[in-house]
Amino acid sequence: MSRRAPVFIITGGQGQCKTTFLHQVLGLIVGLNVRVQGIIAPGHVRDGRRSGFTLVDLATGEHEVLCSVDPDPRCEIHGRFYFRPEGLAFGRRALAPPDPRETDLMVIDEVGRFELQGGVWAEQLDCLFAHPHPPMILTVRRRLLDTVVERWNIRNAVVVDVGVASVMATADAVMEAVWEWREAQTYSAARTPPIPGECIGAPTPFVNTAAGAARSAPVILRRCYGPEE
């Protein structure tokens, strides 16, 4: 299941409102009893330039300051940002590997050069992709997209470019993946040991919505990364 659950990657250039797009998508699905785990990181601007980020735990609604451009000797330095130990601990707790029976969707906003260098959420991403996981949504800058896909060997990516994508169509695609995930979990929980000598048919395969299927959302750029490519 970990290889087949879709990973939606919301991508765009720097400052192209990837987090805003994600927030709008989540706003359309949270009322549908979707059990979401993960983080969203709204940014702060000072004098026309990004000055820091706050984390929101999507499972609890709690929030914590993650980083700032203001120097602090207690903090980890990544680029020009000082990452607060409290913010890092908060985010790492929120990104703990989910119980597949209790979580429908994992969200990480965002995956970038700090993670590619082994910092911030890199360890959590390693754990998430090493185990069965529900559908996921990541935000990634466009110029880092291919590197992120390769680094975590994401084989079932649905790439959503904020420059051309529809929020409504993206939310529909995410909900479709969530329902398929729930059905798969129900099937897995209902399985019983086979009777000796009885021939058991193969389970219904997970529907691959990312493999070039047009469905009804042509505004979503769909790209499947796999060995055949």
Automatic annotation (TrEMBL):
Pfam families: NTPase_1. GO terms for molecular function: ATP binding; ribonucleoside triphosphate phosphatase activity. Gene3D superfamilies: P-loop containing nucleotide triphosphate hydrolases. Keywords: ATP-binding, Hydrolase, Nucleotide-binding. The keyword Amino-acid biosynthesis does not apply. It comes from Methanoculleus thermophilus. PANTHER family: CANCER-RELATED NUCLEOSIDE-TRIPHOSPHATASE (PTHR43146). This is Nucleoside-triphosphatase.
